Amino acid sequence: MFARTRRLEMKMRLILLTAVIGLVLAVPFQASAQERTLVVGGKNFTEQYILAHMIAELLKAHGYPAEAKPGLASGDVILSALRRGDIDMYVEYSGTAWTGFLKQPTEVGIDADWVYEQTAKGMKEQFGLDYLPTLGFSNAYVFAVPRAFAEEHGLEKISDLIPLAGRLTLGGTLAFMGDRPDGIRGAEAVYGFKFRRNRAMDHALLFQALQLRQVDVIVPFSTDGQIAALDLVVLEDDRGVFPPYHAGILVREDVLEENPGLREILEKLSGRIDERTMAELNYEVDGKRRDEREVALEFLKEQGLID
Fold first, then answer.
1. Are residues 155 and 86 part of one domain?
2. Which residues contact residue 40 at a Cβ distance below 8 angstroms, ignoring those fewer than 6 apart?
3. What is the CA radius of gyration of the chain?
4. Which of 110, 100, 117, 78 minimizes the C-alpha distance to 252?
5. Could you say which of 235, 266, 287 is where a domain stops?
6. Phi first, then psi: what are they for 111, rounded to 5°?
7. 66 lies in the same domain as 121
8. Residue 50: inside a domain, yes or no?
9. In 3D, which of 221, 213, 225, 236 has the Cα closest to residue 146?
10. I want to staple 108 with a disulfide (CB 3.0 to 4.6 A). Which of 61, 180, 200, 240 is the partner?
């Protein structure tokens, strides 16, 4: 009787041990799937810092471990980081993807919605990336000058710079002064001008360089808050060198597949931000020297997207 009881106890212990081992082996797999941190990338200018934090904080509010990783270089660098898995998503502009990644031409009056739709289709087919509906604003390259300078020379459109360019210094971002078709190379080809000097610099230095008269003309972004703050005149792109640049979240297909509810959460930002709002958010950081994450959180709370 004792031996039989002993064998029964050992059998029960074996069954219990097997169950515990099975549970222990299953836990790491489940935890890794649920706890993998989603990395929200961003380029190296103010707007992208704000948007990266905004997306990351929205995800965290809905239970997703997430972190913002802005400060990456534009173009192929950030696209490669996304495709490689270093980041899981970031905000891209339709014109940049259309001309830079998909190598498509642009023209005066090209329809912005059509470009966005075709860009989304192309990015999915060529790179396996989903381009979610636009956040609601366009952020284009613009030529800008001080108001007094514009009035002195009668400047209203970019072509008005043609007779003056040879005597002027142009300031632009490193990306704009690079080899992209919608950068200085494209502008020179379309408008037929050549500035006396082209100065490439970090985006954050453009307005300072203009105020210090180190440059005469700058090429910032249309949503830069300092354009209005410094009363600059934005010149009309009358020959259409710049395509539409509507902003939207670019995310890998596998990330959406692994997280079924993720798309719905990200699309809560769709259509929420117009150009004036984005410019105001940018100015909170650039003009008032506030923290990017703080500005992003404030916006999400005002919109009722987080508590």
1. no
2. 52, 53, 55, 56, 59, 66, 67, 68, 69, 87, 88, 89, 90
3. 25
4. 78
5. 235
6. -70, 125
7. yes
8. yes
9. 213
10. 240
Domain hosting 159: range is 143-235
Q: What is the pLDDT of residues 54-101, one digit of tens each?
A: 999 999 999 999 999 999 998 899 999 999 999 999 999 999 999 999
Q: Is residue 17 part of a domain?
A: no
* CATH assignment of the domain containing 103: 3.40.190.10
pLDDT, residue 243, reads 92
The strands making up 217-219's β-sheet, listed across from edge to edge, are: 197-201, 169-173, 217-219, 143-146, 232-235
H or E segment at 148?
helix 147-153
Please state the rounded mean pLDDT for residues 242-270: 96
How many CA atoms does the CB half-sphere of 91 hold within 13 Å? 34
CA pair distance 166, 258, nearest whole angstrom: 55
- pLDDT bin (cut points 50, 70, 90) of residue 16 is very low
C-alpha triplet 252, 257, 263: angle, nearest 5° = 75
**Tokens read off for 260:** 């079924």
CATH of residue 185's domain is 3.40.190.120
Half-sphere exposure of 70 (CA within 13 A, CB side): 19
Sorting pLDDT into bands at 50, 70 and 90, what band is 153? very high
In a domain, 13, yes or no: no
Same domain for 156 and 127, yes or no, is: no
User: Which whole number is the average pLDDT over 252-273?
Assistant: 97
Q: What are phi and psi of 259, to 5 degrees?
A: -130, 85
- DSSP 3-state assignment of 66? strand
In a domain, 10, yes or no: no
